[in-house]
Amino acid sequence: MLLARQGHRVLVVDRATFPSDTISTHFIQQAGLSRLKEWGLLDRLLDTGVPPIRTLNFAYTGIDLSGFADPIDGLTEAYAPRRTVLDKILVDAARDAGAEVIEDFAVEELVFDEHGRAAGIRGKAGGEEGLKEFRGSFVVGADGRNSKVADLVRAEFYDVVPAACFVYYSYFSGIEWEFHHQTDFHHQQIGTWPTNDGLMLCAVMRKKDRFREFRANAEENFHSIYDAIVPELGQDLRDNGKREEQLRPMLYPDNYRRRSSGPGWALVGDAGYHKDPFTGLGITDALKYTELLAERLHEGLAGERPIDEAVAEYVRLRDEDSRGSYALTCSISELELTPYFDSVFRATSMSEGFKRRFFTMLGGGIHGDEFFAVDQLEKLYEEVDFPAEKRILSPG
C-alpha cells in the first residue's frame, strides 16, 4: 500500500483469501493505531464496531497495575480487532492504492539473476497446474513465522531466546469485561480483550512443560485457570459465557531475529523478527517497521541511494529501536519476574504518575530506555519511599 501510494508498481501475493483468520494476538497499541490513522485507515477499522479499550488491568505475581497511557498522537484508546477484519482492511487498502493483489497464491521458489540477486518469485495459484513466474526489482517476505522467503534465502537466526509458554484461546459471547492481563504465582495467566461482534477474546497461558497435561482436558483446564486467578471472572465465564468458536492452541515458537536483508530481498513482520505476544507489541511493531522498510525501499527505488544499503539500514534501525522491548518481553513472558523487574513494577504500582508512564511506554509514547533510565527509577523510588534495600536500578 505504502509503496503503491508513492507510484511504484507493486505485486502482492498471499496463500490466503480474504477475509481470512490466523492464529494471532489482536491488541494494537496506540503507536500502531497512529500508523493506521496516518494512512487513513483508522476510521475504516472503527466503522467495524470494534470496541475501544481505555483501561488496562495488569496483575503480575501480586503486583497490580491498572490504568492507561497518556494520549499518544491524540489517541486515548486501544483496540483489539479480529484479524479477519484488520487484514482485509489492509489488503483492500493496498488494492485501492494501485497494488495488484493475487490471493490463493503459494510461493514455492525465488528467482535469482546471474549475480545471485533476488529477482522474482515462482508459485502456484489455487487450482492451477504448473508454476507462474513474476519478476521484479525487489522481493519482500512478509509471510510470517514460517516464512518461505526466509527459508529460500537461508536467512540465519540470531538473538534467539527459547519460548517459555503455550496459549489456548477462543471467543465468547455473553460476557462484558475490560482488558485483563493477570498472572499468578503458579506460572499461569489469563488475558481478555473485547473484540468485534460483541465477542470477548479469552486466553490462558501456561509453561510449555504443562502442555500435554493441559490438552488432555483443555476445556476444564481453561476454565480452572480463570477460577484460580480471578474467581469472579471464572464464575461469570461459566455461568454466562458461550464459547462461539473452537479452543485454539498456540505453542509459541522461540523468540528470534532473522537476517532480514540481502541482495534484492528483505523480511518484515514475524518473518524477520518475532517475540512472545505477552506484551501485545506484535501488530504495532509490524506496522511501524513495515513503514520504515517502505521508506527505505522508496529511497532505493527512486534512485536516491543504493537500495540494498537503504534496506540494510532498515534492519539496523529496527533492531536498535526494538532492543529494549524485545528484552522486556522475553523476560516477563517467563511468567515470573526477575528481582529487577519486580522492584521496578512494584514501585510503579505505588505511583499514579509512573503507572501512566508505564502504560505510555507500552503504548509507544515514550521509549523503554526513557522509562527505565536510572535517573527516572531513582525518582520513582524516592517518590514512593521504596525500601532502600529493595531498590534495583539496572537488570545486571
Automatic annotation (TrEMBL):
Entries under InterPro entries matching the protein: FAD-bd, FAD/NAD-bd_sf, Geranylgeranyl_reductase
Taxonomy, superkingdom: Bacteria
Pfam families cross-referenced by the UniProt entry: FAD_binding_3
Gene3D superfamilies: FAD/NAD(P)-binding domain
FAD-binding domain segment(s): 2-305
Annotated protein name in UniProt: NAD(P)/FAD-dependent oxidoreductase
